[in-house]
Specification:
The complex is a heterodimer of chains A (178) and B (331). Chain A is of the alpha/beta class. Chain A is 28% helix and 30% strand. Chain A has a single domain (12-74, 86-177), classed as 3-Layer(aba) Sandwich (Rossmann fold), CATH 3.40.50. Chain A is built from three helices and eight strands, in the order βαβαββαββββ. In chain A, α1 packs across α2 (43-59). The longest helix of chain A has 19 residues, at 11-29. A five-stranded parallel β-sheet of chain B has the order 7-6-5-8-9. In chain B, strands 2-1-3-4 form a four-stranded parallel β-sheet, with helices on both faces. The chains are: A alpha/beta (178), B alpha/beta (331).
């Protein structure tokens, strides 16, 4: 059966959402002091890199940027095929920093739970905030994003796909319905 | 050309999740049964685990609640410690049993020992034993996962994998490299696992040692055999020296250690025959002044401590991989 594919955001839409999130992060945290971006591999890591660039354009200052792989912190390892474990690369201390966790799609919240635990294992940040490109609902844990690109109520059997180009820049967001 | 290189670079940068391959082994008994793809999957996983070992808090919760028993019928410091640390860093409970001072010394058979251990419901048994095939024997009889930490003269898969990871880190890739392995080939399970592993990954393997330490027909495993060290290491990218295993030999295979050191020991002069950027490896423990002259043992070309560091990451990867997808394995 052919899947129905609906475009939710095009590249301009993605870009506007990221620009707005960058402004909101700066507003809420009153600048870039102690701010670090931690992207959840893989989509979130790409978006965090884009956010870093956007913040540099706005403030003229680079914020630190790291990536985190949450595979080892998942709660469903026993019931699925082994996943390749990606590199966690946070080459700076997290203690007393304001950590902005970045992911592309927020669904059950389990990935974010795993990511928070992973961050806490690496250091003790002053606070953790969550930035999300698409919030599709269906939370199974009490987790709420601080920054949202787009709220998109979905059915459970639908899928959200964020497309990245060769340079890992988000180009579009699609809803897949089978 | 630049465009091609750039594309290649982007391709290498592609996320591991984009690769659909998955690998859910129940046991790790040897390299012989693994495909190149599976070996690379293990190495990529291990590469990611290295970061945990450099953290301030060196622990992830992945194997919380799992019990790992290290069942060692032969003396081992490095391998046992490495497996134990690997298990602990993944939050598993690890228990060590060594043959001396246990019921083994009181005459219990391997199968009886294993069944008694099984009754305590471990999830993984890591075993070293002096009988070739003993890990397979155990795996056939028990419900839990078995990882081979060295069985007789058969295989030592985690050693070959950590060697491969170390070579890959230093040389970028393994395909096309020439690897010379020198020493007691007959008694070495490290060699057998390495021949399988390196051949599958596309390296050329050369072996050298005194005639009494070269088993006839070993070239059928896919390697070139030399009876002197110099020819074997000429233009080699990697020189892997083996320990003279005095404990494994019945009748002496060499007239004297001194003579062995003169002909098959590696020193600075001989090393000049290998490629300029060649690396020296050794599974440890080294016999200083026998296989390795002091200049080599303390030299910048040797990567022995990198091997030890990578050993922990590789063993973490193996423990992780045999533990995952267990519900799927039951189906």
């Amino acid at each position: 059966m052919a899947a129905e594919e609906i475009e939710i955001l095009d590249s301009d839409g993605v870009n506007r959402a990221i620009t707005r999130i960058a402004h909101e992060i700066l507003e809420k945290n009153k600048g870039v002091e102690d701010l670090v971006l931690v992207g959840i591999r893989t989509g979130g890591a790409h978006l965090a890199a884009q956010l870093q660039q956007k913040i540099a354009e706005i403030e003229g200052q680079d914020v630190l940027f790291g990536t985190i792989d949450v595979t080892l912190y998942r709660d469903d390892l026993a019931s699925r095929n082994n996943l390749a474990v990606g590199l966690t690369d946070i080459p700076f201390p997290l203690g007393d920093r304001k950590v902005i966790l970045v992911d592309d799609v927020l669904f059950t919240g389990r990935t974010i739970r795993a990511a928070m635990e992973a961050v806490m294992d690496i250091g003790r940040p002053e606070l953790i905030q969550l930035a999300i490109l698409i919030d599709r609902g269906h939370r199974e844990l009490p987790i709420r994003p601080d920054y949202i690109g787009r709220n998109l109520p979905t059915a459970r059997n639908e899928q959200i796909e964020v497309d990245f180009d060769d340079r890992n820049t988000a180009q579009a967001v699609h809803l897949l319905r089978t | 050309m630049t465009v091609i290189l750039l594309r290649l670079f982007i391709y290498l940068e592609l996320d591991v999740e984009a690769i659909s391959m998955s690998f859910n082994p129940k046991h790790i008994l040897g390299i012989e049964s693994l495909t190149a793809e599976e070996i690379n999957f293990i190495l990529d996983t291990a590469q990611s685990f290295k970061e945990i070992n450099t953290r301030q808090i060196k622990k992830v919760p992945t194997l919380r609640g799992k019990t790992i028993i290290n069942l060692f019928y032969e003396a081992s410091t490095r391998t046992r410690t490495s497996f134990e640390i690997a298990g602990k860093r993944l939050s598993a409970d690890t228990v060590n049993i060594s043959a001396s001072g246990s019921s083994v010394a009181k005459g219990e058979t391997l199968e009886d020992t294993a069944k008694n251990i099984q009754a305590m419901h471990p999830d993984i048994i890591v075993m070293r034993h002096n009988a070739s095939g003993s890990c397979q024997y155990l795996a056939d009889r028990l419900d839990c996962s078995v990882i081979n930490a060295g069985d007789g003269m058969h295989e030592h898969p985690s050693q070959a994998l950590l060697d491969a990871l170390t070579i890959r880190e230093h040389k970028g890739s393994i395909a096309g490299l020439t690897v010379a392995i020198v020493g007691d080939i007959t008694h070495s399970r490290v060699v057998r696992s390495n021949i399988y592993c390196l051949n599958k990954l596309g390296a050329r393997v050369r072996l050298a040692g005194p005639g009494t330490m070269l088993p006839p027909g070993i070239e059928k495993m896919g390697c070139e055999v030399f009876n002197n060290l110099e020819d074997a290491i000429r233009n080699a990218d990697v020189v892997m020296m083996l320990r003279i295993q005095r404990e494994r030999q019945g009748a002496p295979l060499i007239p004297s250690v001194r003579e062995y050191a003169r002909f098959f020991g590696l020193n600075g002069n001989k090393m000049e025959l290998a490629k300029k950027d060649a690396i020296v490896m050794h599974p440890g423990p080294i016999n200083r002044g026998v296989e390795l002259g002091t200049a080599i043992a303390d030299g910048s070309q040797n990567v022995i401590l990198d091997q030890v560091e990578n050993g922990v990451a590789v063993r973490m990867a193996l423990l992780y991989l045999v533990s995952g997808g267990e519900k799927l394995k039951g189906e």
